[in-house]
Records
---
Amino acid sequence: WGKEGHYVVCKITQEYLSEDALFAVKQLLPDSAHGDLAALCSWPDEIRFHYHWSSALHYADTPDFLCNYQYCRDCHDSYGRKHRCLTGAIHNYTMQLKLAYADASSKFNYNLTEALLFLSHFVGDVHQPLHVGFTGDLGGNSITVRWYRRKTNLHHVWDNMIIESALKMFYGSDLSTMIQAIQQNITDIWSNDVSIWEHCAHNYTACPDWYASESVSLACKFAYRNATPGSTLKDEYFLSRLPIVEKRLAQGGVRLT
Amino acid sequence: AILNRIFTSKTGIAQA
């Protein structure tokens, strides 16, 4: 996601943190965040060219035109190095934080502030369908389209444009209004789904492979569909995809919590 | 759910 998308996911997360988790998160945040996790959820995007190794961790490469996700097949970087992908990163940072908090005497000296910020960012990204898009079109980055009158690419439409158009059209250009609307849906129309979203098979702490499977399926059904190179995306595409984006932001927030 | 589970000790971690 872009800045707004990560802010929404992390703002939703903060609403539902347990007392213990909120205490631990505030301890890990730098003073500059003033206790607000959402203020730093885009930090991994800002340093991805400084921490060059982190760039491959923002996405997973599904083989072209396949609409399912398999960790062993898809989680590797462009040099074929296994585990260096979005879901491998979520496993990794979940493990780092868990080890540190499960065993206070753990000998590992991970940077837990970075682990928290990477985990928060990547749990958001794995819910953006085109972050688990096709290798051949770089998750939609090389599919040039028009968004109304503006020339852009399909990945940018899903990272930013759908949210920006929603803010203008429905939320008075106010991100907190959009966040409140999504939170209202979490307590109303999605209230029966939340416990399913939160759950992981085998009682695992995180299950990013499942989140990625949902995303690549949505990429095939909604992101790529009716968005061929050179097409112009307008109200029909926007109004039918906005509910998908809002639900993915909600799921990302609830699951990160 | 992930952060709440991490900062309370009870569950396993998804194996890669």
Note: Chain B touches chain A at residues 1-9, 11-16 (CB under 8 Å).
---
Amino acid sequence: PQPSPLSPQGSALLQALGLRPPPGPPPTRPVPPVMWRLFRRAPQAAESHGAGGEGPEVPQEPEPLPCHVKELGVPGNIVRHVLDGGAAAPLEPALGSLCLEKPLFFNLSFLEPREQLTLVRLELNFGAPGALAAGQGWELSLFQGHGSQLWGRPLLSRPVPALREPLHFELLGLGPLGNASVPQNLSLVLELSPAGGDSGLPRGLCAELGQSLEASLLVVTLEPQLCRPPLRKRR
Amino acid sequence: ATHLAPPEGLDPPCKARQLYINFRDVGWHNWIIAPRGFMANYCQGHCFFPAATKMSSFNHAVMQSLMHSVAPTATPPPCCVPVKLSPISVLFYDNSDNVVLRHYEDMVVDECGCR
């Protein structure tokens, strides 16, 4: 008989594989291209097929290292793409010289204590509005905080020449991700201001940037005990 | 999906048999994005002497199959088990609507042997 997710056999199998299916109707969220790319380059048995979906076919490379995400260059056997949980929240007008002050919230409760974080990469994609002020440089800062409350000094602060392409920031080792225990969530505030002051930004651009921003986290973890032990020494 | 195992007594040697796991069959096709299934295979067959000497088997299995051939009631034959396995990676949605890529070691039987 077909083991349904709720049957004892189905539940035991899901648990053994560390899988927790989404409740309710099938998810409709599109699969990010980066995840397709990582899947196609991941170690696969030649026979596992029917991969379907978008993205170019990538020729299989020689046997990659187990428990290593070659494309990202870090150890790991689980890669998760986490969306900003606050994306739909209404945007408060930014104060002072800021063009944008945007809260970001990532739910990390899926992380198990036995998982070791090896990469936490924030991606900020401003979409089409990011190309509008082509010559404009920006100052970008990231704080720990909630809403408009900022907690302490910025986790990172740096100049950004343009917003046309997605921006990537490595967060592992910063703030709540700096100590051994893994936080249940990541509550951040993004501040964006035009470099050298407000030199005639197109009207409404800041609001458009806030609405078009898609923020996501790429989280890579390693469960060492799931990796094949080194070969037994010869006696 | 699998093929019916040959009837007992026809003495099929130990080798990998085809077994395709189709995620739709187990009701996971809504949240497993890729692959749709994979060839897991399994091992079946006898490890009689001298057949056991032809496959990638430990020397002990050869000795045990020899002992079984001369004293079948005293010594059971070696077991037909996987000796080479491959990993797979699965792309799926988790219960927080995250897209997850997970790597599983030792999910596909490539070779069987007598141990």
Note: Chain B touches chain A at residues 25-28, 30-31, 33-39, 86-89, 91-108, 110 (CB under 8 Å).
---
Amino acid sequence: EAIPAPKAPCRNLCHRHQLFINFRDLGWHKWIIAPKGFMANYCHGDCPFSLTTSLNSSNYAFMQALMHAVDPEIPQAVCVPTKLSPISMLYQDNDDNVILRHYEEMVVDECGCG
Amino acid sequence: VQFQEYVFLQFLGLDKVPSPQRFQPVPYILKKIFQDREAAATSVDSRDFCYIKDFGVRGNVLRLLPDQGLFLYSRKLSQASSCLQKFLYFNLSAIKEKEQLTMAQLGLDLGPNTYYKLGPELELALFLVQEPQEGDQPIPKPGRMLVLQSVPRPQGVVHFNLLDVAKDWNNDSQKNLGLLLEILVKGNRDIGVTFQLQDACARLRQSLRASLLVVTLHPEQCHPSSRKRR
């Protein structure tokens, strides 16, 4: 379920949107031992030139936003993950094996213009 | 929104939704590693998550494979002191081709630690089965001896490193003909003791659990930690 974002001063600007996938909703709780679900957060929002210096952006995004301001044909900088974290899943397969699997860079912690 | 389940399953390295008939017990070590990682994922230290410090090996997938072999009952036990013989078999087909095996640890759980029934001392002999069992053979022919180890009493868990054997099996599944475990009783065999030994061996047959814990490294999911973060 989408977790309501805190009252962001400018909701349309680039920021992290939180989304929790509950494995029970998918009927996967029967074979996934842990965790109960995982945070499928995503990045979304505008990267206007005026704010690229504050939206946790890369220098490249600043230049892209500047070029977009000069020539709108050039696309704006985009809202992308800037910090990711891993998840581990403990589950059982059809051969009665118990598996602990680790996935890098699965959860979006922070977003910025890139 | 139609959730593209099969795409997500493939991402998890699965070809279909598992529907296990019965839940296997989760060993303490897997729970511990899982909880350590859950804690580390929310902390700031960006450690190498494809290194398993509990075992000192690199890897991102740990699988506990249950033994699928059977106890063997042969009229002529190999030795008077034989307590039990068991064929051990582990199905490695879940390991995908691109995965590199970095650990294979055989675990033999002889039973709970207790303060009573402390005898007898045992000897564990583990053989590689290298020839298919013939029709009239009561037990598979023991090949190369892998382990010969004494344990003071039929209690607790003993571990053996079988990485080289598992790599052979993983490289050529035809070679995976299983293992032969023989547990012998050490020490004297006077009449009075024999009855207790039969009792101890019967208990051991009840409690013995074998499993193979394998760790693999999936290179595409474990790029070197040198990857620059923003």
Note: The two ends of chain A are 27 Å apart (CA to CA).
